[in-house]
Amino acid sequence: MKEFITLDSQGSQQLLDKFNRPYTTEEILAVLDSTGDDSLHHNLAKAIMQRRSTLGSFTDIDQLKEIDGFNGQVYNRVVSSLIQPSFPVNEEKLEQVVWVHGSSLQIEHPDHYSNIVRKATGTRITGTEYDPPVPNNNPFLPEAQGQSRPSISNVFFSIPTPIFQSGNRVAVRTILLNFIESDVFPHWVTEVSLWDGHIRIFKQAVGWFRTDKHRNVRIGIPSRHQINYGIVISLKVGIWPHNPPTPNWIEFAAAGVEFVSGGGGQLIAQ
Questions:
Q1: Would you say the C-alpha torsion 124, 127, 129, 135 has a positive or negative sign?
Q2: What domain range includes position 109?
Q3: Which of residues 39, 59, 83 is at a domain's end?
Q4: CA-wise closest residue to 94 among 159, 172, 167
Q5: CB 3.0-4.6 Å disulfide test: which of 28, 51, 170, 181 passes with 259?
Q6: What is the pLDDT of residues 1-13, one digit of tens each?
């Protein structure tokens, strides 16, 4: 087994950044594959992502060394890659991070909800009430009361979209969301899509259920589609009926995207 190369504090931080910055297992896999040896890298990438999720982020190189499969050979190859130019000509470049406030949210079927309020903290969407109200001693039997249909609609964020940045065509690398939910059961976001004008360039099923706190969500886009028109983030939101006087709601504070250019491959033309 190869000995681990010793790094100074700056080199150690650079190595940790290599594995703290990627947002997906695929991006961690790309870091490992860039070292020139792809043997068993897929399983190792998954193990690294799982370990980082447990820790929050890597703060010490020993945390990487403890991961099964992250041996001296892998470590030294990644360290060797640190001496390469930080930004090769064909490397993907972050051009802009664009956010919009939650008060700009649009709703496809606003009549599906009992109340929609836009305010300084964002847009709050409230589900309908049980009719007749469910007794307080039995609040979670909507089917028995014949009131089992949730309020469901797609909601949209329109993102200001640069087609060119510094003379380069751009693509979206990451979707960014910030929202908060009430503590009344249940409500959820089941689907996230990204549209460029009339063309859907990304769709992902999700399972975000009530957490009773703020969420900061990052969703990596696996393919780089050339942007031609204007970006919209679409979410499918469902809220079950609630028993007054406790409302059931979800509030969107902000949404955004990361625009990038370049990269090792060509942008996918629409």
A1: negative
A2: 94-261
A3: 83
A4: 172
A5: 170
A6: 456 667 777 777 7
